[in-house]
Amino acid sequence: MTNRTPQRMRRDGRAALIFLAPFLIIYCVFLIFPLFKAVFISFHDWELAGGYREWIGFFNYEDLWYDDYFWKALGNTMRFAAMAVPSMTILALLLALGLHGHGRVRAVLRSVFFSSSVFSVTVVTLVWQMVLSPDRGLIAPIFRSMGMEPINFLGSVEWAMPSLVIATLWWGVGLPMALFLAALGQIPDELYEAAELDHASRWSTLRYITLPGIRHTVLLVLVLQIVGQFQIFGQAQLMTKGGPANTTLTLVQYIYNTGFRDWQVGYATTIALALFVVMAGFSMLQLWLGRKGDDQ
Amino acid sequence: MRNRFSDRLIVVAVALFAVVWLIPVVWVLVMSFKPDEVLMRSTAGFLPVPFTIENYARVMTVAKVPNWLMHSVIVSFLMTFIVLVISSMAGYAFARLDFPFKRPLFVLVVAGLMVPEQAIFIPLHTMFADWGMHNTHTALITPRLAVPIGVFLMTQFFRSIPRELEEAARLDHASHATIFLRIMLPLSVPALTTLGLFTFIHGWNDYLWPLVSATSKDMYTVTVGLASIQGNFGQSEGLGTLMASAVFASAPIMLLFVIFQRFIVAGVAMSAGK
Amino acid sequence: MSGVSLRDLRKSYGALDVIHGASLDIKEGEFVVFVGPSGCGKSTMLRMIAGLEEISGGTVSIGGKEMNAVPARDRGVAMVFQNYALYPHMSVRENMGFGLKNMGFAKKDIAERVNNAAEILQLTPYLDRKPKALSGGQRQRVAIGRAIVREPDVFLFDEPLSNLDAALRVQTRTEISQLHARLGATMIYVTHDQTEALTMADRIVVLRDGVIEQVGAPLDLYDRPANLFVAGFIGAPKMNFLSAVLQQVAPNGAATAKIESGEVIPVQVSPAHAQAGDKVTLGLRPENIAVDPAGPLKGKVDLVEQLGNVELIYATLDMGCKIVAELRTRISPLMGDRIAFRSLSETIHVFDSSGDAITAHNVLKVAS
């Protein structure tokens, strides 16, 4: 039981200050202050270099509302998330179900599927650009052997986005898989033994014991994935440059282009804050779901 | 015990899938050992014939890859070290000390989890520009130190250590510093390892911030550097060299993963377990 | 070495009072046991003495000096925790030497004291092991050793035996008693187990709901419980209680009490506190009940427990209440048999309607 009488608080206060100061200073300077500064910048016509800044009030926000590129980028990002999140979750769940349990083979396979997560986005995109390349890639020979012209995956309006999803799956499945594995490990063995004595089939065990047992983790993974995939940047920037015809232009990429290619820092920050609001909404959703889960 | 056969079948199926999973990596690895001239004609085949290490030799001597690698190592190591120090200190205060405004402060820190990097990288950029500090290690490291998740994890972990241990230490004439250094930290090695690994991997693979901060070719980290040379898809440097660079850049992080994979998976379990 | 005084000690968590003003003087070298059911505040009191818990009101003094504002480490106390609280990453040697090291003792002195303590506690072969590699009893001894090396003025024990199995508990109990005899230090020991209290204490402090119910030597408490709570808490099997009404009270305290079945039992009460017609509760220790076919307490046998040296007979009296008798003789009735008991009248405790003892020996003691 903690006790919070003033005496103890006073005694600990000085120690707490010393222990907290390094983090809090860095936190305020490099996280809280920039956040407020972002709001400040968004009220300006602010250029990256040259020091041109002019207070323009809500003009950037008005611009944003009528900016077709912004809505397109938002739409693309949502389309990407809508493809990547369910497929990532299902793939991670299937892998975790298959690899949950003891044995060397399973342990090695778990490592294999996790290993691709440690590559940097540049390596991942390099690998997949090679794999998907129509003239030098790994898939092209398959098409040729069937007498077909290889598809230019990254250059095609229909295939570019799914290609980014595939690369993202390959890169990112490790973490949700590990989360599912951890959750599966928490289900007591006795439940499975009882189910077996109750003549439960493999399917009904999955349906009535395993899935209900990990439903909180499913929610957690879904929210983490939504938040994570909304931030997609590297894959699109490096594999398709947002093309073809801006069909893979994502929000973060649009922020980067606006700020660091077109130097419109004020407007870029406005888009960034819009992204922040969207993602904060999802984080709230996570908190709300988490609290709801606790009540049960 | 039951359904041994179907269990095996599942493992075999997943194993086949794992082979497919690894094919791209193996392929890239193989290409990194083939001469550029051969690759110009054909990239097919999973055997490194003809075999050459010339690509790696070129990476080491001609390209700036070793230079970038050095920046990545310095930045990732320092970042990891400082994150561990400040997160564990703050975590100890939140978990074990009583002080005014403790709750609101903790809420403030946890709320920081909701702020994505993309929301603040532009103001950060203008700050470092004002200070004239872009293209320095400091600029690459400091914005990455304010990670609330580290404080959150360490607070949770310290809370799980029995309070009696600390009370025993207090009766044993230990100061807060002694309790922290001699009792809490040694008991937190698993948590510190996990947090350290994730910080390191994150720092190593960081892309957006180094891309806008380290704009001079001499200050690239390996991640940004690789992106700069793959831009023209290996035309200028040669495909084999490009592949060798990728392998070379991934080797340290892969090595780290192989050594510590046990902690990584355990760490995921811990951070998810609450 | 020093005694410990509590003056009107209070503890509250917000609006919730857990200790309601406890006063107590513990003499130098005394072995005092705080006993009571869980939640009675005994551990909180111990932790306030240790300095681990803030004091809400009143004072704690050790060796005559007020300690309220003195941090735990400077109070000259050592504590043995319920879960031992051994530092898992340190060897036994380091665990025992940690406090001395923090106090700045020389390496040589630390080694000497640790070795001595290890000798006393038979821990010498295990000095380089980690706590994980020790048995429960060994860990317990390390925890005690960690307290000993500090040579504190006051030892505090917080339910130290509750994690040991029954046999080890008895053994460690004697070891702690011997340790007390050997060191002669003041020891305060908290337990919920009245057997531990009876066997180890110089004086027992019985607590209930944050109030000290009675303080006294073990046999004082056993023979002369001050109220129903102490009477029921000390002693196993528990004292039997029967409700009754006083019939007549003579000036010398000789009285008769009528129990619900109508039988009349002679008792001794303090005449100043009793008069005819008072509702009272009679208390009979199980070993003070004899089987007697002509006895006033008639009933039916529920269960018989054979312990070898004694026999416990659980019965329901015709008046409805349950009773336990502990017999040295083996009469071994069958379940459901009719049975009648008689009490040895001079050992009947009498409590008034508010639960306070009005048994005559209390009065006699005051008079003498």
Automatic annotation (TrEMBL), chain A:
It is found in: Cell membrane. Residues 74-286 form the ABC transmembrane type-1 domain. It comes from the Bacteria. The chain crosses the membrane at residues 15-36, 80-99, 111-131, 159-184, 205-227, 265-289. CDD domains: TM_PBP2. Keywords: Cell membrane, Membrane, Transmembrane, Transmembrane helix, Transport. It is a multi-pass membrane protein. PROSITE patterns: ABC_TM1. Its main location: membrane. SUPFAM superfamilies: MetI-like. Belongs to the binding-protein-dependent transport system permease family. PANTHER family: ABC TRANSPORTER PERMEASE PROTEIN, DIACETYLCHITOBIOSE UPTAKE SYSTEM PERMEASE PROTEIN NGCF. This is Sugar ABC transporter permease. It comes from Marivivens donghaensis. The lineage of its organism: Bacteria, Pseudomonadati, Pseudomonadota, Alphaproteobacteria, Rhodobacterales.
UniProtKB/TrEMBL annotation, chain B:
It comes from the Bacteria. Residues 69-260 form the ABC transmembrane type-1 domain. It is a multi-pass membrane protein. Keywords: Cell inner membrane, Cell membrane, Membrane, Transmembrane, Transmembrane helix, Transport. InterPro entries: MetI-like (IPR000515), MetI-like_sf (IPR035906). The chain crosses the membrane at residues 9-30, 68-93, 105-128, 140-158, 179-201, 242-265. The complex is composed of two ATP-binding proteins (UgpC), two transmembrane proteins (UgpA and UgpE) and a solute-binding protein (UgpB). Belongs to the binding-protein-dependent transport system permease family. This is sn-glycerol-3-phosphate transport system permease protein UgpE. It comes from Marivivens donghaensis. The lineage of its organism: Bacteria, Pseudomonadati, Pseudomonadota, Alphaproteobacteria, Rhodobacterales. The gene is ugpE.
UniProtKB/TrEMBL annotation, chain C:
The gene is ugpC. Pfam families: ABC_tran (PF00005), OB_MalK (PF17912). It comes from the Bacteria. InterPro entries: AAA+_ATPase, ABC_transporter-like_ATP-bd, ABC_transporter-like_CS, ABC_transpr_MalK-like, ABC_transpr_MalK/UgpC-like, Mo/tungstate-bd_C_term_dom, NA-bd_OB-fold, OB_MalK-like. NCBIfam families: PRK11650.1. CDD domains: ABC_MalK_N. Residues 4-234 form the ABC transporter domain. GO terms for molecular function: ATP binding. Keywords: ATP-binding, Cell inner membrane, Cell membrane, Membrane, Nucleotide-binding, Transport. Belongs to the ABC transporter superfamily. SUPFAM superfamilies: MOP-like (SSF50331), P-loop containing nucleoside triphosphate hydrolases (SSF52540). This is Sn-glycerol-3-phosphate ABC transporter ATP-binding protein UgpC.
